[in-house]
Write a structure and sequence with these properties.
Elements lengths: L2 H5 L4 H16 L3 E12 L2 E10 L4 E11 L2 E12 L5 E6 L13 E4 L2 E4 L5 H14 L4
Antiparallel strand pairs: 1-2, 2-3, 3-4, 4-5, 5-6, 6-7
């Protein structure tokens, strides 16, 4: 079997991660549409991109680079960018290594007029945060 043939089959844990995200999206009330794309860089590394459109017209665009390490998924890089219906920034989480003065470096959250500390959210956490903002009519 050639290396190329071996890489056509993603690891089982990456497949499970994809299924978990899809099920999480489908169980939400707010998203009216979504798209998830996986491209596998190797047997144990994948690049995930996509978007979620919410009922109020907000858009979440996302990217993740994930890797299987033993029986766990590790997110090497992520970006969760939320815009309102006018394409104005609501917030964005990412782990690009800028803003070293922030305690949670490299993890941080961009708001329209500032950058703040953040936890290490996952995609479903961000969707939940947007849903709460929509339901409570809050905005940063």
């Amino acid at each position: 079997m050639t290396r190329r043939e071996k890489l056509k089959k993603p690891s089982e844990i990456l497949k499970l991660y994809s299924e978990k995200l899809s099920q999480g999206f489908e169980s939400r009330l707010s998203p009216i549409s979504f798209d998830i794309n996986f491209s596998f860089r190797s047997l144990k590394t994948a690049f995930l991109t996509g978007f979620v459109v919410f009922r109020n017209g907000w858009l979440l665009e996302f990217d993740e680079i994930i890797q299987q390490k033993n029986n766990n998924i590790v997110r090497l890089k992520y970006r969760y960018h939320v815009m309102d219906k006018n394409k104005e920034l609501v917030f964005r989480y990412d782990n690009v290594a800028h803003f070293p003065e922030i305690k949670t470096h490299p993890h941080h959250k961009h708001l329209p007029n500032k950058v703040i500390e953040s936890n290490f959210p996952n995609l479903l956490d961000v969707i939940e945060e947007v849903e709460i903002m929509i339901i409570t009519n809050l905005r940063p």
